[in-house]
Design brief:
There is one protein chain. The protein has 458 residues and is mainly α. It is 62% helix and 5% strand. It has three domains: 5-101, Fumarase C, Chain B, domain 1 (Orthogonal Bundle), CATH 1.10.275; 108-147 and 157-195 and 223-361, Up-down Bundle (Fumarase C, Chain A, domain 2), CATH 1.20.200.10; 365-427. The chain is built from 18 helices and six strands. Helix 8 (208-219) links the parallel strand 3 (191-192) and strand 4.
């Protein structure tokens, strides 16, 4: 009976996707281990270490469908080793005594580590693909709304005018950095393991390094110059990169939740297809996808700490560290992939309400241009004096409920320094956008250049 949301059959795919969970499917994992054993045998046969006929038989049988599931299940009921039941079943499946050459010179962690790297390769291919798709949607929003004015906020308070395109551009730039991080990480990460019980390759003999090179080449992986049984920095980097990617999506999701509150009403998560989001209040549009993104991102960050702890190994191998890593990495990967699946849907169908953005931009009237006034006056009075005057005048405007313009005109010093055009500008906060459009255009150009050299697939 399923007991984890990943495995639910009725309430399925809420915190997972079929594509991501299939990577970590139990039989898929077994087949990766068997693929390792087949590659190892083929490489050893090429070098004359084991008979060619044995390698051929091992490769013919090295698929889970060729093994006796009852033997495997019974083996795991009795064994305390992660791999032995699979090895035993493969040996029994091989004919003519060729099973004795299965797993020749390798150790359990060699197989499990390499299998995990193959899983992470598949996971990062999906993550990379979805970041690229998300990039397209964010770039489209940044371009379309490069001049759509809205209020910028800092410390939870209204600050100065920005454009919605600028906000999207910030998300876009961060997303591109994650794409570049994946491109940078994968050559280091996609390296297999084959070094024997304590990392010396002793059981593999003088040809051990060549066996390892050929085995990893068959698996499409790099080959490490030295054992990494106890060096988990690349795995930790992968986990933390996923956590960072998840955190970026939570930031976007949180912004949509905040700006979607009725009192603000500038953005909304796409409407569900006729399904209610509240059990008792039909009028509500709960941002369910954004909330799920936040929940999974928090899980991912917490689990990434487990991976950091798993870097601390004792001696040449330490099951306490490695098992905690093996438990956490599938969850981190599945959550990250699912988060990206949700955020793609949210951004792709995001409801944008420019008229509410305009209304909120003018909520405090001409007060949102106090910075512009400060520097306008500073050119004559100096910044410190102008700041002192503006502090007093904005305070007066707040307490008297008068406009900033009226308070400026009532002050002899500022009234003498501001002309009609200056005062008229206070009615148009949408014009105080700085270099927003230029920055967006430059960013889009830079990303286009980077996209031109992106690999199509990892």
């Amino acid at each position: 009976m399923p007991s984890h949301p990943f495995d639910f059959e009725i309430q399925a795919d809420i915190f997972s996707t079929p594509e991501m969970t299939s990577i970590f499917d139990e039989q898929q994992r077994f087949n990766r281990w068997l693929q390792f054993e087949g590659a190892l045998a083929a490489s050893q046969a090429e070098l004359g270490i084991i008979p060619v006929t044995a390698a051929a038989e091992i490769n013919n049988r090295a698929k889970y469908e060729n093994l006796d599931p009852a033997t495997v299940r019974e083996g795991y009921r009795k064994s305390r080793n992660s791999l032995i039941p699979i090895i035993k079943a493969l040996r029994e499946a091989c004919r003519n005594g060729h099973g004795e050459f299965v797993h020749y010179g390798a150790t359990t962690q060699d197989v499990l580590d390499t299998g995990q790297i193959m899983e992470l390769r598949d996971a990062f291919r999906i993550i990379y693909r979805d970041l690229k798709k998300l990039e397209e949607s964010l770039a489209s929003l940044a371009r379309k709304h490069s001049a759509t004015p809205m209020i910028g906020r800092s410390h939870g308070q209204q600050a100065l005018p920005i454009t919605f395109g600028l906000k999207c551009g910030v998300w876009l730039a961060e997303n591109r950095r994650h794409i570049e991080r994946i491109k940078n990480l994968t050559p280091r990460l996609l390296v297999g393991q084959l070094s024997g019980a304590v990392g010396t390759m002793a059981a593999l003999g003088e040809q051990g390094r060549e066996v390892a090179r050929r085995t990893m080449n068959r698996l499409g992986l790099g080959c490490s110059l030295i054992s990494w049984h106890t060096s988990r920095d690349n795995i930790a980097e992968a986990a933390h990169l996923m956590a960072m990617i998840a955190a970026s999506q939570e930031k976007i999701a949180n912004e949509i939740v905040e700006l979607g509150k009725n009192e603000i009403g500038e953005l909304r998560e796409p409407a569900p297809d006729g399904a209610a989001t509240s059990s008792t209040m039909p009028h509500k549009r709960n941002p369910v996808f954004c909330q799920r993104i936040a929940v999974m991102a928090r899980q991912t960050r917490a689990l990434s700490g487990t991976i950091t702890e798993a870097m601390i190994h004792e001696h040449e191998r330490d099951g306490r560290a490695i098992w905690s890593e093996w438990l956490a990495m599938p969850q981190i990967s599945i959550y990250t992939g699912t988060i990206l699946n949700y955020i793609k849907q949210v951004i792709g169908g995001l409801e944008i309400i420019p008229e509410k953005m305009e209304k909120n931009l003018k909520l405090h009237g001409d007060m949102v241009l106090s910075e512009w006034l400060l520097f306008r006056l500073a050119s004559t009075l100096g910044k410190l004096k102008a700041q002192e005057i503006m502090g007093a005048i904005t305070g007066e405007a707040r307490t008297s409920a008068r406009s900033l313009k009226d308070c400026l005109l009532a002050d002899d010093q500022t009234a003498a320094l501001l002309n009609r055009d200056d005062l008229a500008f206070l009615d148009h906060p949408e014009k105080y956008l700085g270099q927003s459009e230029n920055m967006i255009n430059d960013l889009l150009g830079e990303i286009s250049a980077q996209q031109a050299i992106d690999p199509e697939n990892l």
